[in-house]
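Service request form, structural biology core

Requester: graduate student, group of Dr. S.
Request type: structure prediction, single chain
Budget code: on file
Notes: please return the result as structure tokens.

Sequence provided:
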Amino acid sequence: MRPRDPAHAYGDMDPRSLGTDALAEARAPVADSEPPPRPDSARFRCIFQEHFAFVWRTLRRLGVAEASLADASQRVFLALSRRVDEVPDERARGFLFGTSRRVAADFRRLGRRIVPTDESESLVDVGAPTTEELVDQKRAREILDQMLDALDDDLREVLVLQEGEGMSLSEIAELLDIPLGTAASRLRRAREEFRRLLKRRMSQRPIAGGIR
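Core staff response, request fulfilled:
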């Protein structure tokens, strides 16, 4: 398991205070379905199997609705299938992330972003949650989605890569093809903005019977 970056300070902006650690636990299905057809490329199939979950999580964290993830993921891998011979192994993850960014932006631009409300969005692996816990988890995920949507795309990207994927700043800088200092600056601004949004959201929570 990759060691966490020393700059990691998720506790300062942890949405578990809202009921779930949703950012770090975006669920991805096992890649047991067939990849987009490219029967002549064993390498393409290998890349698909290795990076399917990463693409799924990335699309989800960048704002693609649960109901649209299968469609969005297929678009990403179709793009790869057309250029797989041009993408070296060490750049495959970066290519998929860049394509996922564009696909996610297209889905949001087309107004296909839907705040998930299905109980299957519950992401805390704690056995059999109560009905009240399921409601809290669902609401927490909705709030998290809204706060992530409020971030600029460049801030959102570094935040989900560091907090969700556990990448180091150097890995993020390489993946996004930006200077290390820029990656650090964006992550700092993303955390500050997320904390500001979370603080404002928490201050707006109604108090009923003395319980927030």
